[in-house]
Amino acid sequence: MTDASGLDAQLRWSRDGFDLDVALQLPPRGVSVLFGASGSGKTSCLRALAGLEPACTGRVRFGDALWQDSALRVFVPPHKRRLGYVVQDAGLFAHRSVAGNLDYGFRRAGRPAHLDRDALIDAFGVRDLLPRRVHALSGGQRQRVAIVRALFADPALLLFDEPLSALDAGARDTLLGHLETLHATLATPMVYVTHAIDEVTRLADHLVLLDAGRAVAQGSLQATLARLDLPPSLVEAMGAVIEGEVVRHHADEHLAEVTFDGGTLLLPRRRAAVGQTVRCRIGARDVVLSLTPPSDSSALNHLRCRITAVGDADHPSQCLVQLRAGNQLLLARITRRSLHALALQPDREVWAQVKAVALGGQ
Amino acid sequence: MTDASGLDAQLRWSRDGFDLDVALQLPPRGVSVLFGASGSGKTSCLRALAGLEPACTGRVRFGDALWQDSALRVFVPPHKRRLGYVVQDAGLFAHRSVAGNLDYGFRRAGRPAHLDRDALIDAFGVRDLLPRRVHALSGGQRQRVAIVRALFADPALLLFDEPLSALDAGARDTLLGHLETLHATLATPMVYVTHAIDEVTRLADHLVLLDAGRAVAQGSLQATLARLDLPPSLVEAMGAVIEGEVVRHHADEHLAEVTFDGGTLLLPRRRAAVGQTVRCRIGARDVVLSLTPPSDSSALNHLRCRITAVGDADHPSQCLVQLRAGNQLLLARITRRSLHALALQPDREVWAQVKAVALGGQ
Amino acid sequence: APGRMVIAAAASLHDVMGRLVTSYRAAHPGARIDVVYGSSGILLTQIRQGAPFDLFFSADSGYPQQLADASGSDGPPAVYALGRLVLWSRDLDLAHVRLADLVQPRFGRIAIANPQHAPYGLRAEQALRAAGVWSALQPRLVQGENIAQAAQFARSGNARVGLLAASLTQSPAMRHGHVAAVPDAMYRPLRQSFVVTRHGADNALAHDFAHYARSAPARALFARYGFGLPAKAH
Amino acid sequence: MPWLSDQDLEALALTLRLAATVTLLLLALGLPLAWWLTHTRSRWRKPVAALVALPIVLPPTVLGFYLLLWLGPQGAVGRAMTALGLQTLPFTFAGLVVASMLYSLPFVVQPLHDAFGAIGRRPLEVAACLGAGPFDRFVSVALPLALPGVLTASALGFAHTVGEFGVVLMIGGNIPGQTRVASTQIYDYVQSGNYAHAHLLSLSLLLIAFLALLAISLLRTRRSAHD
Amino acid sequence: MPWLSDQDLEALALTLRLAATVTLLLLALGLPLAWWLTHTRSRWRKPVAALVALPIVLPPTVLGFYLLLWLGPQGAVGRAMTALGLQTLPFTFAGLVVASMLYSLPFVVQPLHDAFGAIGRRPLEVAACLGAGPFDRFVSVALPLALPGVLTASALGFAHTVGEFGVVLMIGGNIPGQTRVASTQIYDYVQSGNYAHAHLLSLSLLLIAFLALLAISLLRTRRSAHD
Ligand SMILES: Nc1ncnc2c1ncn2[C@@H]1O[C@H](COP(=O)(O)OP(=O)(O)OP(=O)(O)O)[C@@H](O)[C@H]1O
Ligand SMILES: Nc1ncnc2c1ncn2[C@@H]1O[C@H](COP(=O)(O)OP(=O)(O)OP(=O)(O)O)[C@@H](O)[C@H]1O
Ligand code: MOO
Ligand SMILES: [Mg+2]
Ligand SMILES: [Mg+2]
């Protein structure tokens, strides 16, 4: 991928006992997720991209703009990069109220008229907090304020460092939904650091796996997640991400029927209208394989597939089965006992059974 | 529950726009999880228990010790409560190295000989960090140091405020395992704040649900999670937690066979030996119901159950089915379409199908 | 025409210079006359660095002479009074007390002005040497930066006795103390002189005041404050 | 009991004017200087820091004496000023301002330096990412966060100038209405044994100062209620 | 070029002894005082804070004058001391120490107060939960975190005492080896027109102070490398 209009960075940086050496090519739209273990260098990458670490050498190009080139002695300071950076600990200004914090970047961005501030304030549920002092906010409240503040600055590039890790499941789900909507409407690319799998699968278009200061894998989400050779930290995330078209709504049952290349799925109805394309993730652990199409089971979805490969999972009792339904790759995680009992092997035809509820939460 | 040797607290505290009014009865052993949305008062509770908020009135008794009684004007200061408090943002001492931070509580606890410091240091993977300055740690590294520091203080009560929210999935899994081991060996009760479902299900013995400063439900994990009337934020967590005895190991397949009152389960083998009691959670979303015992399917476990009740789920397309297998309650989340197609209703007998891999990660 | 002038006066002239200006002002209504007090040494330094003082009344003749030698004055110094040293105490009866008696411990600490640069301090040293007690008294001597400060040490009782300018002991604040004269012979005469500075050379008021300072009413005032009088000039 | 004389009032007014002028100028000078000291990586940092601190150890009279020599008509600065057709500084209000600034500089810069240091890099980084340039960050983030330090610096600078004596005496010349401030006026009263007037003027000075300090302390508390 | 006389050396030594004594005593007094001011909820807080700050505005000579009156044999304190069979304080080294402490107190307490305030409650709370009692927290957490402030306070206190002149002039009595410090010695040289000696002694004082300040600045940098 050498898209001239995306983010293209070559970062090199050594400091006591930690070496960062990362080449990133991120697409000009959508969400690129940096994923990696604690201490693998995710925050360091974001800081270098933001221009907060002048000691980091290399080259950073964003669209047409050259932000940094150590060889040419180019270095654009952070405040000229039009960033929306949400740092790991929120970093709210203690001397300003919540409203004052939100206003800070907004004013410096020249009060952009196209920003619907009220909508953002409501979406992130910070209206009641506006007059509050930031010391009187809970951890989650701070994080929400920090997100809205970054969005108010009308950034050309969003940098989010684990913005949801302080939120409860409910709030996170809501915020994730809003972030999804945002990135569809805002067209602002986002580099997103997280170690939460559901954030990866729901938000990422592009995935970069960091390990000990190096990018060990990067590519589109679909291509990356269906690989069998990912590091163990990703096993929970593994599975297929399927994009299909909503063809019908079953109104009384609140289900949506989605067709894709490899078949049809029923899933809990979402806001998407008929004809729209939706994304849904089928986790490897949610897939049950059987040799015959199951009957009288509560699992609604059955896809006819062909086994393409079998690989190891993270536990010796289990293995990963890669399947193809039409052009779409699926993954199933099953026990080795079942693999043998059902005599599964590449090229065999099987039925993949997926509960509709397993497709709901995404 | 009026166990005289546990933690018994009655906390009342008003401050601009937020009222805390919570009565807690926590058992003298094991992990009590405070669970609730952002801003519901979890941190406030912990701070009040620690004695950091003298403005909070009420009564706190821990075992035989009366820590606070506003009526009697009793107030034991924090440093006399023998606490191990891990705060939400780690709170490391900036003027000390990692080793110096760890040493701090240890020395003040009188260098307790029974603490196996090396084991803890290795368990939490902080050995390499010992000489480091705390400013040079990543978010996750800080949190791990804070946990070890609290344990080094040889506390009588552990208070953990979202200690794992800054960790990646791999590190979290490892740490959760160590926390599980710890609470089995240390006998130190723990009050644990989190909004991560897997932490609840893996660690909690006792669950307190906080909402807007009030405890809306509390009780043992099993009793609480299998209720059908929990708030929506808990839906993902719902399911059964089953305790059973390991009766056999299938060594070549790395599976363990566990029997409980309602049947037998095969699960990925863990460290537990034959004869030991293990806990495993069966999430409502992982259960598939069928009318006949399935054949040639990769799902290893099939339990014969009787439906006891049907309730609403968080999405209108779905419902929750409460089942009984022996004395054990299970929950299944299925679509209403399946409910009708299979004509499921209370008292009906069904087969609950659970993949072994779904039981693995806990 | 009512003018303005600033007089720099040695610390030993506290009070008497004020009176002198008051009586002079009665004849020159509208003129603004300010007095700046300091130790003679500092005043000289300041004048040499361009201080806008029109007249310089020193506690001796040496400092004005230095100014004159450096052509910082309008004309040579003129003696306006002869300074006198006295022994003063707030609460000790000094009748029949001679300087030599000061070695007795009952006199406690003894205040003098700094002999290095305050003319009265130097005279005090000479007198104590003449009495043969200078070395013996060393541990009990406390020095004021100028003679007014030495007076303050004595007045506050922190020093039991002081070797002070007679003029200061005539002020209302100190008139109630006990005084003993120091024989003139024990120290070199203090020929207190003044000059019109170069700054004041063109100031008619300054020249007029210089004239007044040697007039009969002025001499009477100096005498009332315990000064000796120089031979009448001109 | 005497009442404050016209001269006393004049001296008090002059004192306040001097202290206010000096404090404002010192803040104008000290804020950027302290900021520079906090954030520069220049190798001039330490020498400049030590230089700024030096006036503290000079006895004020000594400082005043050297200023008198340098700024006077024979001094290097004085000659240059005369050559430019300017009045030399000693014995003028402007001279007092210059000298007092030099004398009180460290008492203003040091607390500012500490306060800026205590802010840490985080809020400034956040501000930069929100589009604030260096000067903007200084004004909109560093200054408000360092407010307690700014107040302390102002209080110390103001009070130190009010309490200034040695420097003023040396290069001021104690000229009424021009360079005779309250402190030298009190000294005069004391020297002439006029204790009643000395007490009264001292009391006035104390009262004014107490009110000023109280006001600053109130500002501090209002602000620290935010923590 | 003259060399430093024995008297000069004596004065320098006395100056350093005085400044060191005063600084140590002021830290011993100022640390708990600033700590108390930072954390108390007593209603005496504001009055005490204002009282501590008051000496700043008093011209040193005025302060010295009142000390002379109060501590002298006629003064309230002096009478009490005489009644107890003690020597009165004016004209003694102990008197200089007491007066200088009073004079420099605010310059020590203020930076300490700021530094303690900047620490925030969090580290202290964490320490409490790790079993540290109030005094322990003060020593093991507050002090090291406030180190830059402690250094500033020490530097200001030390330097201010070295530069002390007015107070010493008023209650010192200029007794060699006892109360004649460098500042008064230089002043004497200036007064008697002995400029060469004045320059030399001033230079020595500057050099010593510069070295002391440099040392403190180095300590600060070592420490701030941790941020
Ligand atoms: N200021 C610093 N000086 C030296 N090393 C540092 C500094 N900050 C971080 N490091 C080290 O750099 C490495 C990468 O840190 P970074 O903060 O980028 O990790 P991360 O991937 O964001 O981790 P986390 O998920 O825990 O936030 C870590 O090993 C850390 O110890
Ligand atoms: N210092 C304070 N002053 C006033 N109100 C506060 C203060 N700190 C927190 N609050 C309010 O108290 C409520 C409870 O806060 P608390 O920190 O206990 O929430 P929490 O459950 O820990 O949330 P989170 O999961 O986001 O950390 C919130 O509404 C918060 O806004
Ligand atoms: O009046 Mo003087 O000059 O102090 O002796
Ligand atoms: Mg990070
Ligand atoms: Mg919290």
Automatic annotation (TrEMBL), chains A, B:
Protein name: Molybdate transport system ATP-binding protein
PROSITE patterns associated with the record: ABC_TRANSPORTER_1, ABC_TRANSPORTER_2, MOP
Keywords of this entry: ATP-binding, Cell inner membrane, Cell membrane, Membrane, Molybdenum, Nucleotide-binding, Translocase, Transport
Superkingdom of origin organism: Bacteria
Start and end residues of each Mop domain: 296-362
Span of domain ABC transporter: 4-237
GO molecular function term, any single one: ABC-type transporter activity
Lineage: Bacteria, Pseudomonadati, Pseudomonadota, Gammaproteobacteria, Lysobacterales
Family annotation (InterPro entries): AAA+_ATPase (IPR003593), ABC_transporter-like_ATP-bd (IPR003439), ABC_transporter-like_CS (IPR017871), Mo/tungstate-bd_C_term_dom (IPR008995), ModC_ABC_ATP-bd (IPR011868), Molybdenum_import_ModC (IPR050334), Mop_domain (IPR004606), P-loop_NTPase (IPR027417)
Any one of the GO CC terms: membrane
TrEMBL record, chains D, E:
Region forming the signal peptide: none
Family annotation (InterPro entries): MetI-like (IPR000515), MetI-like_sf (IPR035906), ModB_ABC (IPR011867)
Membrane-protein topology: Multi-pass membrane protein
Cellular component terms per the entry's GO annotation: plasma membrane
Keyword Transport on entry: yes
Main location class: membrane
Keywords: Cell inner membrane, Cell membrane, Membrane, Molybdenum, Transmembrane, Transmembrane helix, Transport
CDD domains: TM_PBP2
UniProt GO molecular function: molybdate ion transmembrane transporter activity
Residue intervals of the ABC transmembrane type-1 domain: 12-220
Subcellular location: Cell inner membrane; Cell membrane
Name of the protein in its database record: Molybdenum transport system permease
Stretches that traverse the bilayer: 12-36, 48-71, 91-112, 138-159, 198-219
Family to which the UniProt record says this protein belongs: Belongs to the binding-protein-dependent transport system permease family. CysTW subfamily.
Known function: Part of the binding-protein-dependent transport system for molybdenum; probably responsible for the translocation of the substrate across the membrane.
Superkingdom: Bacteria
Keyword Transmembrane annotated: yes
